Each structure stands twice: as C-alpha cells, then as structure tokens.
Amino acid sequence: MESVLLIGKPGERFNSLHEFLSGKLHVQYGSDNPEVLRASVNYSDPYVIAVYMEGFQEKQKQLFEAIDEVYPTVPVVTVGTFFEHEIFQSFEADDRYDILIRPASNEQVLEIINKAMAGRVELLKNRKKKILVVDDDGTSLRSIKAILESQYEVFLVNSGVKALASIEKYQPDLIVLDYEMPGCDGKHTLSLIRAEEEFKDIPVIFLTGISDQWHVKAVLELKPAGYLLKPPNPQILLDKIQSVLA
Questions:
Q1: Which CATH class is domain 130-245?
Q2: What is the DSSP letter of 173?
Q3: CATH tag, 3-125
Q4: Considering just the CA atoms, what is the radius of gyration of the chain in Å?
Q5: How would you write the pLDDT of the chain (246 residues) with one tens digit per residue?
Q6: What is the reported pTM?
C-alpha cells in the first residue's frame, strides 16, 4: 500500500496534521529518535517520508542521517520555518527533498506529499522488478541470472539461511527458491519467509530437480506462486515470472 512515514515531535500542530493526513492517506508514525528509526522493523518501505520540524534543533541532524541511511531512495518532504530549514540545508540540497515553509496549512502539506508520491509511483512503475534467487548450486545461480538479468534486477544467495537477510536488504518483488538444499531447505525457508509479516506476501516460485508424483504434491501443498523443474526452460521461467508479477 502507498504509505507516508510521518516523523515529528507530538504536539498540537503535529497531532492535527497526523489526524488530517490519516483521513486521506495510509500514515505510519515515525519516531524523531534516529536510533529508534534505524532499529525499527515495523515500517514497510514508505512511498514518501514527511518530516514536521517544529521544535527541531541542530542535534536532529542525526535523524536526517538515519533517514538517508535507512531510506536512501525515498522522497522526503520537510515542513519547517526558514530557520529550521537553514539548519538542515545540507541534507535538503538532495533533489529528493521537497521543502514547505511554515506556517502552512494541512491542505498544503497534503498537496506536496501527493506530488512527491506521484513521482515515486511513476519511478517505481518504470524500474526493473527485483528477483532474489536462492540456490545452493553456483552453476544454477549463474544460469538463472543469465536468463533473467536482461529484464530484471537479480540478486543471488546460496542458502536459505542467507535468504531472510537478503530479503530485508533487497526488498525483492519475487523469490525463485530451490526446493532441495542442505540444512535449511526450500520448505523450511518458505516457512521462515511467511512467518515474517513484512515478507509473507512476496510470491515464491519453487525450482525442483525431482519430478515424481509425491515430490510434486509436497511442493504444491506449500501453495507457492509456481514451481518449475530444474534446469528450467528459459522462456517458461520468464513467462511464469511475468505472469506472477503481472
């Protein structure tokens, strides 16, 4: 869902803005504490970050450092006085920042957020989709990457254990997952993915090297977005991914 991460110090004006925006958009509240922001795992990747700077002082520069670290590509709308913007102008020189000078009405804040969100939606629409491929076989990883890389941004990991950290890092649109892996196999890896609220809806296509009836039934019982036999036919793999992401 297209969401706004609203950051600021609770107070009369901030609370009024929060209430107003919540009636128009999907709003998540973000702490103005940089360490809390860095440590949080509850935010899905927002489309826009709005920072209401009332009461901000120079020490809040650390907050903007955290925003740039955690959300390096997300547009940021800052709402503050001339003086507050002057403090943080080194960050706002980045062209992903939109500046609104207070006093500003809630409607004006909504307008600039909607503008930033429209730009973000268009950018995401035109970017390559991201595919994470999980397989313990290096030859298989390289082969699948060669099939996909002209149309997708492809990331490779060689174990189920590494998959979760990679999902958090790369935020893939789809996962291609080998069913037979030592240790943490495909079934276990999928259960770990689905146990995480922020990952559970990422579609997963299984690859399996075994085609007997029992094995295929076991794969299908996990309700993946699809499954293919290894080595996959390149066109069939591309068609399956395209149909799942459509």
A1: alpha beta
A2: S
A3: 3.40.50.2300
A4: 22
A5: 578 999 999 999 999 999 999 999 999 998 888 888 887 655 557 889 999 999 888 888 888 888 888 888 889 999 999 888 888 777 666 678 899 999 999 999 999 999 998 888 887 777 789 999 999 999 999 999 999 999 999 999 999 889 988 998 888 999 999 988 888 888 889 888 888 888 889 999 999 887 777 777 777 888 889 889 889 999 999 999 999 998
A6: 0.55
